[in-house]
Amino acid sequence: MAGAGTQKRLLCVYQILREYTDEEYGITIKDIALILEAEYRIVSARRSLYGDIAALRDFGVDICMVKSHDTRYYLGSREFELAELKILIDLVQNSKFITKKKSEELIIKIKGLTSLRQGRILEKQANLNCSLKTTNEQIYYNVDKLQHAIAAKKQVEFLYSQWVLNFGHLDMVAKSYRKNGKKYVVSPYGLIWNDDNYYLVAYDGNSEKIKHYRVDKMERIEILYGERTGIKEFLKMDFPDYKKTVFGMFGGEPQKVKIRFENSLVGAVADRFGKDVKIEKYDACHFVAEVDVVISGKFFGWLFAFGDKAKIMEPEKTVKEFRKFAKSVLKLYN
Predict the structure, then answer these.
(1) With b meaning 16 or more CB within 10 Å and e meaning fewer, what string describes 42-73?
(2) How far apart (Å, rounded) are the C-alpha atoms in residues 73 and 53?
(3) Which residue intervals of 171-315 are DSSP H helices?
(4) Total of domains in the chain
């Protein structure tokens, strides 16, 4: 029994150091003894606590000591630095697809990875913008089920929703299901995060193409017994580059496009296509980038935002499509 008691006390001492100390705040052996008695109902002699700290150090726990008139101890290193936890909290509270309830739960868990004192600092800095949050809790279960299907190499089926106008009713924007409510059956290969949304990348056997589907619009997902198909098509694609190629997550065949940019836009181009994008000097003030994109309204809209600082050079077909797109926009204001 004595051995079991020692083990329990050792774990409690470690937990106390995790919760009550950090690199800016240490506690004394006396403090540890008082917390042990108050929170865990364990009465321990100081000599035993010195031994516990030595044992934890021998095990590899980074316990630092600050010598003064009352020697203090603190946990020197953790899995995450305070700045890293702040980044995680910022990502959670600014992610639209994570609900308010789930955001609060995740932030509490993240705070638990540091001391109570630093957790309170993180809490004060948190600024949860609930107006941008989704109310769809189902997305977490969707991600979990899709991950299981990908790992098991099984097909999935699901309903795919969309928003439609519903004039004459209280809710003028209503949910409906694509394909007249018929379920999609696809072979899942991966999940991609893009523009604050999760997308499933999967092979559609009917069209014999790799496609993508927004996870928050998928409902009643079921893992099927059928094995995945489309492995040859999946192996042909460069999965890390898929996000860049399928510009803005719009369907279609990617094609090479040459665009002339002012030199000042090199950062915007590198942010969108990566720093290894193929570029060449055009003149003293411009460069030409050759990129693989899916031609879509979203791509044209991104380009339109640069005004006269960007121009499609080739292919001529894409130049004509962009000209048509620009005229259709200008026509609305004539």
Answers:
(1) bebeeebbebbbeebeeeebebeeeeeeeebb
(2) 9
(3) 231-236, 239-245, 266-273, 297-304
(4) 4
pLDDT one-digit tens code per residue, 84-122: 999 999 888 888 778 888 888 999 999 999 999 999 988
The two beta strands, 254-262 and 209-214, are unpaired
Instruction: Give the residue from 158, 109, 160, 99 showing the smallest Cα distance to 131.
Output: 99
- CB 13, CB 36: distance < 8 Å: yes
The enclosing domain of 283 has a CATH number of: 3.30.70.240
- Residue 243 domain-assigned (yes or no): no
C-alpha distances (whole Å) from 258 to each of 255, 279, 313, 316 are 10, 9, 5, 10
What does the DSSP assignment read for 227-263?
EP--HHHHHHS-HHHHHHHSGGG--S-EEEEEEEEEG
Q: How does pLDDT run across 207-236, given as a tens digit for each residue?
A: 999 999 999 899 999 999 999 999 999 888
Query: How many other β-carbons are positioned within 10 Å of the β-carbon of residue 79?
Result: 8
The domain in which residue 19 lies consists of: 2-75
- Report the C-alpha gap between 151 and 140 in whole angstroms: 17
Q: How far apart are the first and last CA of the chain?
A: 88
- DSSP structural state of residue 293: E
How far is C-alpha 15 from the geometric centre of its chain's CA atoms? 30
The residue out of 75, 106, 121 marking a domain boundary is 75
Residues ≥6 apart with Cβ < 8 Å to 111: 85, 89, 119, 122, 123
